[in-house]
Design a protein that fits this description.
The structure is a homodimer. Chain A is of the alpha/beta class. Chain A has helices at 4-12, 16-22, 30-37, 50-56, 59-62, 72-78, 117-129, 147-153, 167-174, 214-218, 242-256; strands at 24-28, 43-48, 66-69, 87-92, 107-111, 134-137, 162-164, 182-191, 201-205, 222-225. The first copy, chain A, folds into two domains: 4-92, Ribosomal protein L30/S12 (60s Ribosomal Protein L30, Chain: A, 2-Layer Sandwich), CATH 3.30.1330.30; 100-256, SPOUT methyltransferase, trefoil knot domain (Alpha/beta knot), CATH 3.40.1280.10. In chain A, strand 6 (134-137), helix 8 and strand 7 (162-164) form a beta-alpha-beta unit.
Amino acid sequence: MLSKNKISFIKSLHQKKFRDEERLFIAEGKKVVEELLSSNFVIRTLVATADYLAAFHDTTLDEIPEILEAKPSDMERISALTTAPEVMAIAEIPATVLDVTMLKGKLSLLLDDVRDPGNFGTILRIAHWFGVDQVISSLNSVDAFNPKVVQAAMGSLFHVPVYSIGLEGLLSELKSDPELPVYATVLGGENLFTAPLSKSGLIIFGNESMGIRTSLQELSDRKLTIPSFEGSEGNRPESLNVGVSAAIVLAEFRRRG
Amino acid sequence: MLSKNKISFIKSLHQKKFRDEERLFIAEGKKVVEELLSSNFVIRTLVATADYLAAFHDTTLDEIPEILEAKPSDMERISALTTAPEVMAIAEIPATVLDVTMLKGKLSLLLDDVRDPGNFGTILRIAHWFGVDQVISSLNSVDAFNPKVVQAAMGSLFHVPVYSIGLEGLLSELKSDPELPVYATVLGGENLFTAPLSKSGLIIFGNESMGIRTSLQELSDRKLTIPSFEGSEGNRPESLNVGVSAAIVLAEFRRRG
């Protein structure tokens, strides 16, 4: 059973401040925990209902140092999601330091203040599908280890390296490296489908309502836009969702690749 | 002010049964109501806070037969969303009958049991962006006039015709019309980027976890798959979200167009 202290501790990990202090995060639900178990991430504690443990307490779980059984009502208390899961893992946030030299020859996504956890998680899943080498998010983006990002990423967070740094500093440092073109996805840029694209480089996606900050656009080499198409009905939507845009842009980079 | 009866009536429209009976739906929030006002849809009633009415009660609203002021607490009671809006419209569901002869020369999306309102709305927005002529959803899909679909579609529901019918009947009727190829997006099909694609036809997307029913796959002419790409890290995700898949597939159809 879960102690009161343990419940408070797990709940504290809903907040970025405590995740940063403890270097721990929570991953909820069977599917996500399964992906975590198959990754290189280190699980400290597994909390699960008696039913889950009866069904899954096999050799895979034997390597986890702490396994705690919890009542469904306690799962509800510690969950950050609308529907409490049968199982939750507490795992270590990997220590990552971005070495800019390792960006060469790679395809990287830069997220400028993507705030919605669902969008961030969706983008990680897309990045994983298209073999993006890393996702680099601005300091004002939602935290990649936010429980709702972890949920939406459906395990892809454990397979695509994610860094959180100041993007202006990064782009200034990389500026004018011909081997690392920087693409900004904006409204009113070049047609994605006819613009020249390289195999490696950095692609920036912006905030849900504000887009990419002007300062970052100025540090980019090429501005790309997904064209809309006229159908039988009139006016087009103003924009596409950032996850949808990332999917279309990455598909095009990889198709040409 | 809103009467108790009016509040009950508006809340009843959260349910498909009453929407079908009344042939009315609700659209919430400034942005969505603005799109509704600029469309051909007929608004019966507008409910808004005093602040909204003070700012927006101009000539556009003069054509609406009934305008009601509501307290923020009443807006909360009638809203189907997590955050109550400043404004809500009650509008007529257009009477639509699908005439299969009008599918010729057009690009149509078929949704086989897409259940998540967010996904359905996102797909409508993408369909609108790429000038899709109509979206045809199976009878077990979420209702297009569900308040959460209306919200997620961000106005695109008012610009792309949506039909709800039995897809097996439709495909059987169309079967072997060489001018109307039917594409099914599945796992393990032909590479989307190298398969021949036509300018018009029907593209089927399936349920979030089950994909497209086998019976419908058998009625399709061509099975398409979005290829995943190997990066520096290992195993790919099992699948992409249905909205993301629709975006990539439609972009490819239109790019070739």
